[in-house]
Write a structure and sequence with these properties.
Length: about 260
């Protein structure tokens, strides 16, 4: 086995993967602690040291994987993701690029590429994008149509939430999430007694139907992703006839051996 194969065997091993996951978790906790001024004032040097050690481990691990896989390293999208996250962490975080310092927390997202179950969830979300795009277009159309209707109905009341089409669409989007729609409806009912009809109809279509369709598309993609995972077939039991033949063959071989031993030279 060549040195490259040995390095690849180590970096792809379960024990090495568990060590990297532990480093990711420790580094994520450290970055969270650095947001506390009191902890930074008390243990700032220690937190910085842990962060630099973790970055060094990530760079060494990435270099080992690059050496083990060669050019094929970039054929895996998850490897490209890891390379991008670690590369962003290596950029200088001073002057105009000071905002990059906050992007160090992206290292915590490496858990997604290290844990197979998380990778399956992301793969399912990516597969559901075409369906989600279609549903998003339908939701935008619903917001536009509802916005025009609501503007015509409630603009005369002088409510600033329905002052123009933009404000109305934003209000309807808020209603779609189920936030404060009942208070809004009761505010309008003194001037528009039948306002509840519009709100109930919009909720039935926009919230109870559209949002559930989004969930259904994601769940369907998850089921297809789980179903696509290879499964190891269970070993089938040999029929009794085959077992009987095997026993007979063994007896014949044993008899031939005894016969060959008993025959004179």
């Amino acid at each position: 086995m060549s040195v490259r194969d040995r390095v690849g065997h180590v970096v792809e091993g379960a024990r090495f993967q568990r060590v990297i996951i532990a480093v990711i978790v420790v580094n994520a906790v450290t970055l969270g602690c650095e947001t506390s001024p009191s902890l930074v004032a008390e243990h700032g040097a220690f937190l910085t040291a842990v962060d630099r050690v973790a970055l060094g481990v990530f760079v060494a691990e990435l270099a080992a994987r690059l050496y083990a896989h060669g050019p094929g390293f970039f054929r895996d999208p998850w490897n490209c993701f890891d390379f991008l996250v670690v590369g962003v962490s290596l950029l200088p975080a001073a002057g105009a690029l000071a905002v990059i310092r906050s992007l160090r927390i992206l290292r915590a997202l490496r858990l997604v590429s290290m844990v197979p179950s998380m990778r399956r969830v992301i793969s399912a979300l990516v597969k559901s994008v075409p369906g989600l795009v279609s549903l998003s277009g339908l939701l935008v159309l619903l917001l536009y149509v509802g916005g025009v209707v609501a503007s015509n109905l409630f603009q005369p009341t002088g409510d600033p939430r329905f002052s123009d089409l933009g404000a109305t669409v934003l209000t309807l989007f808020q209603i779609t999430t189920g936030d404060g729609w009942s208070d809004m409806m009761r505010d309008l009912m003194p001037a528009q007694p039948l306002a509840w009809v519009f709100f109930v109809c919009y909720l039935l279509v926009g919230t109870f139907t559209m949002l559930n369709l989004f969930i259904a598309v994601v769940c369907s993609a998850m089921e297809s992703e789980i179903g696509a995972q290879p499964t190891v077939p269970a070993p089938r039991e040999a029929p009794d006839e085959v077992l009987a033949e095997i026993r007979a063959l063994r007896e014949e071989v044993r008899a031939l051996r005894l016969q060959s031993v008993g025959d004179p030279d």
